[in-house]
Amino acid sequence: MNVVIAVSLFVLMSSSCYAADRYIEMSTDPGEAVLGETVSFKCEGGGDWQPPLTSAKIVISNLERARGDRVIARDNMEIEGTTANYNFTIPLDEQDGYWKFKCVIKDQSTRVKSTAKFVVADSTPDDPTDAVLVHSPIDAHNTITEYTGPLTCITCHQTEATEMLQSLHMQWAGPTPDLTNTDGESLGKGVGGINTFCTYAMSSKSACFSCHVRADGNAPDAVQAKDVDCLMCHSDTYQRKFISDPDNTETVTNVLGETKTYVFGKVDANGNYTTVPDYDKMPPETSMVNVARTVHMPTNKSCLRCHAKAGGGDWTKRGDMGLSSIDPPVEEDVHLSTAGAGLSCVSCHSALNHKIAGRGIDLRQTEAAAPTCQSCHDDAPHSSSTLNRHAQGQISCKVCHIREYGKGGATEISRDWNDPVWNAAFCSGQGGFVGHEVKESNVKPDYVWFDGTSYVYNIGETIEADERGVYPMAKANGGPFDGKSFIVPIKRHFSIMPLHESGQIVPPAIMWMFMTGDFDMAVQKGMEEQGMSGSYSIVEADAEMLITHGVEPKENAPSCIECHAGNGLTPDGTGMLPFEALGYHDIPAAVKACNLCHEQKSMGWESMHSSHRADDLSCNSCHTPEPTGFVKVQSQLCSSCHRNKSWKSEGHKKHIEKGLNCINCHTFS
């Protein structure tokens, strides 16, 4: 039988624990250990002790025995200053359940004792001990004869574990150089994060932690190497679960008038959860030794085990990926399909030193530079010079080559927390309420300018409504023809959020919504957690989410007439792109009259474009709003590049012919 030690450390101090300002801090290491492994017990004297200790004894008892018999009775502990240590191997034939250990330590004047419970939890069904061991193509892996949690991997892969400790996947936070509402500090879902889906993950009582690679969930304490659950990314067989705690419960009355008790995971004094292999979700006769022997580099399945169901269900959150993306039809994703390019997630999202490349509009942290189409395709990927001009201009490849999202499943467009809907699968199968979801398939994207930076709301900031009356929680930065922005396709997700009278969004204690269906209760509990008082109102919020996956076969790319009318001024709503909203029609009158740079001429729209592009004119030479001023005082502007010259009527033409852009001299609002 495979049994795991999980130290709960809800330490039950006896009345004699304190004496003359002396107390004992008790802990064990590791927090996870299979039956038969050695556990280190530590009893550390705190307060006014006089080092060194003169005596230290330990008693270990199994409370599941009829009389709570002692397994170890007053054995000597090893003393270092005011700390006492003891190593003990849990016998293989012992009974799982609640145990306790007691420390009795003294210095020259005082004797103090303290007791703490811990649990030996059965991780049934059993790990087959008689399973035939598989042979690994990696010789070193064939030496694995027992699985002792993450330490099995980390014993040899210490460098990789150290890399992971500072990664986004471990920290749920990272540097934010591409957020314009921060100073680059470390932020993420675990630090300051809130979104328009399940709102505040850290209040979910581990409901949002099941995918996290940390073996201890998302504890508030600093990560350690033993917390790196390598198998989450390096085994497609491995499944795990949190150990539940019958003493960690909450009984509520929900909006249906039903009384229900929810059982949560076991948490120690440091906020650590304990995960164990979930054999019910793995193939019959799975052995963890064999799982450890057959680890591999991440596959599409490895990544999508978590990313496909983000937001609470398959295809729910991102809109451009789901479980079908493991091996989709070519029409759904030509890159990931084995019938297409047969790429994997890590083909683009490289993971040098366990730092993942790529960032979307609504993500806070940047670990590594985003992958680009040009990593595989050159700057002139088409046989047509006209199409290559598009590829080299301000339109991202994704605009033409991802016509729709939600192609493999319905994706969530909006969520209304004030309309609770029961979901029997929520809360680890205990059931829970989510907000009413509007989902759609095969959705045409919205389009925005994106310069690679964005605004993403963080807890504690104030926020204002935009011109629509909507509170944008994630928004791309960028503008037309600024030399660095591209038009990109997005999914726009709407939700309702609680806005405090201070102008801050309240992070709901979302588990209360899951349990009761009462969003107001979740908000009130959230205000208590954040130390907020006063009133709040419900407002509409949205988030812009970059669509990057789901590239279609090139035959599906739009034709010219799907985007452009013959006169070049395609009204919004009649073509694929909203040209007016994107600023293409913000053209100065002198440019429209064709007399800004030369005498007035008459030419067809397409011929005019071809002629000007042949002269290497940039798009923003014509497609730009009226200038608002000069980048320098006019008397200094000319002399900053050359000696004083008088302005002549052909000045614009000469500057443009030399490749200067409008923004070299002019400012724009």
Q: What does this protein structure show overall?
A:
With 669 residues, the chain is of the alpha+beta class. The chain contains 18 helices and 25 strands. The strands form seven sheets. Strands 17, 18, 19, 20, 21, 22 and 23 form a seven-stranded mixed β-sheet that branches. A six-stranded antiparallel β-sheet has the order 3-1-10-9-5-6, with no helix packed on it. A hairpin with a 4-residue loop joins strand 9 (97-106) and strand 10. Helix 11 (510-516) packs antiparallel against helix 12 (519-530). The chain is elongated. It starts with a strand and ends with a strand.
Nutshell version of this structure?
The protein is of the alpha+beta class and 669 residues long. The protein is 16% helix and 25% strand. Among the domains are: 3-122, Immunoglobulin-like, CATH 2.60.40; 587-667, no CATH class.
Kindly report the name of the CATH homologous superfamily of one domain.
Answer: Macroglobulin (MG2) domain
Average pLDDT confidence is 88
**Which stretches are low in confidence, meaning pLDDT under 50 for 5 or more residues running?**
1-18
Figure out the total of helices: 18
By CATH reckoning, the class of one domain would read Mainly Beta
CATH fold label of one domain: Immunoglobulin-like
Outline: elongated
Radius of gyration over all CA atoms, rounded: 31 Å
- Main sheet characteristics: 7 strands, mixed
Residue fraction in strands: 25-35%
CATH architecture of one domain: Sandwich
Distance between the termini: 70 Å
Helix content: 10-25%
Total count of strands:
25
